[in-house]
Amino acid sequence: MRTWVLTIEGCINKPIYFRYHDLLNMPQVTLPVTLECVGDKRSFFHPKTRGEQWGLGAISHAVWTGVRLQDLLHAADVPKGCT
């Protein structure tokens, strides 16, 4: 973890990098999130579609904790129109 770096550069005013330690010291948010694959229940489609024939298992739920992307982009001073 000593050499890991998250770099934000490109269409921004202030290229910036964050070490793992920096992220741990930033405000963090915890959110419960449900993810559903667009192909969930695909096996029930008529006519059959191409791809993985998911039944009822393409849904998951997790609790995520971390720094908001908004806070990282704010630190990089993203100009208007740079999205």
For the CA atoms, what is the radius of gyration?
A: 19 Å
Principal-axes geometry comes out as elongated
**Uncertain stretches of 5 or more adjacent residues:** none
Trace the largest sheet across and list its strands: 1-2
Strand content: 25-35%
Major beta sheet summary: 2 strands, antiparallel
Helix/strand class: alpha+beta
Q: How many strand elements? A: 4
The proportion of residues forming helix, as a percent range, comes to 10-25%
- What is the residue-averaged pLDDT? 87
Structural features, described:
The chain has 83 residues and is an alpha+beta fold. It has two domains: 1-28 and 67-83, no CATH class; 29-66, no CATH class. Helices cover 14% and strands 29% of the residues. The chain has two helices and four strands, in the order E-E-H-E-E-H. The strands form two sheets. The chain has a two-stranded antiparallel ribbon. Strand 1 and strand 2 (16-19) form a beta hairpin. The model has no long low-confidence stretch (mean pLDDT 87).
